[in-house]
Amino acid sequence: xxxxxxxxxxxxxxxxxxxxxxxxxxxxxxxxxxxxxxxxxxxxxxxxxxxxxxxxxxxxxxxxxxxxxxxxxxxxxxxxxxxxxxxxxxxxxxxxxxxxxxxxxxxxxxxxxxxxxxxxxxxxxxxxxxxxxxxxxxxxxxxxxxxxxxxxxxxxxxxxxxxxxxxxxxxxxxxxxxxxxxxxxxxxxxxxxxxxxxxxxxxxxxxxxxxxxxxxxxxxxxxxxxxxxxxxxxxxxxxxxxxxxxxxxxxxxxxxxxxxxxxxxxxxxxxxxxxxxxxxxxxxxxxxxxxxxxxxxxxxxxxxxxxxxxxxxxxxxxxxxxxxxxxxxxxxxxxxxxxxxxxxxxxxxxxxxxxxxxxxxxxxxxxxxxxxxxxxxxxxxxxxxxxxxxxxxxxxxxxxxxxxxxxxxxxxxxxxxxxxxxxxxxxxxxxxxx
Length: 434
Hints:
The structure is a single chain. By secondary structure, the chain is an alpha/beta fold. The chain folds into 2 domains: 2-61 and 367-414, Urease, subunit C, domain 1; 63-352, TIM Barrel, CATH 3.20.20. The chain has helices at residues 84-99, 102-118, 131-141, 165-176, 197-209, 224-227, 236-243, 260-268, 277-282, 290-295, 315-330, 338-344, 347-352, 387-391, 419-433, and strands spanning 2-3, 5-12, 22-30, 33-39, 47-48, 51-53, 57-61, 63-68, 121-128, 144-151, 183-189, 214-218, 250-254, 272-275, 300-302, 370-374, 398-403, 406-410, 413-414. Strands 2, 3, 4, 6, 7, 16, 17, 18 and 19 form a 9-stranded mixed β-sheet that branches. Helix 2 runs parallel beside helix 3 (131-141), helix 2 (102-118) crosses helix 15 and helix 4 packs parallel to helix 5. The mean pLDDT is 96.
């Protein structure tokens, strides 16, 4: 039998939610899919041009970032230590109006792709303006993406006339639908307070007509309800529910200030959620009631948000913060376990983004999106269980990354991105901003 890539001698962690490890295993990859997996003793003869000896590494599913604004790497550290309204209105929105361009989105998204791939993220859900340039950057980098075009009721980069925001999103979908297997287009309505009721409904209708995901920021800050014009409900979630935009293809991002009734609505509508703990903490927004979501079987993924509000895109770092924050919230050390958070960043994250039974685990027939973590690192020894990945690992521990059956990071070096050229171009753009 032939394999495009054959991984041997690795310690396999096939799926989150289970502590079962295969101490000495193999993974065979062909045509972008996992075609065989198991202990080395079960491996039959394979011919391959790409043999990876995974000795002293953990072979695990690639991480899935369920919410990001990749191009905002340009604004990393630009406006720190501010509350959300001041950060957005006084700094981010003005900077975006002056400096967001097709060139900026392309290069800054490519920088984000490099940061994510090097730290073990193989899939990202992104939302921004000039999203066609971000999609192109992700494709060239070999990063799988659900790339959503931004919709907002203000003059925006690439869409100076807000009355054409849905039209612009529709053109983007038409251009990228079935264009590349690595890119799934989507629609991103910024929030209930920057999008009118009519815009929210039209954006959702566009997503539904194309059977695509609909992303929206919701309930991020305590004052958000007071910012919504013509609210149809007592909370941002109830407002969206009254508009009829909550269903199994809606991803509600943040959901920090949600009450018990909101959680029941999200669960009842089968809406999906992405939380971004570091961004929530940095902006002092609060922290999402994750236990309540999981108790109701709401599908929850883990996101980094953009580098302007986080300032990093390392999902290992995000997992650590998420698990510990939930313990402090309830003063319960077992409120949310490490394996729950690890599942959010892999299998559950895949489900949030519509990759059910296709991604987030190392199984036959699944997408070949894998990460090899270097277990020789001192911070990962001894390695008793995958919990160590949440509490001790970091992006710097990633050795190799495979996306769609192609090696994109080898021995800690990106193979698909000219990092020097990318850094040069981003610094040039940043100099104009400064």
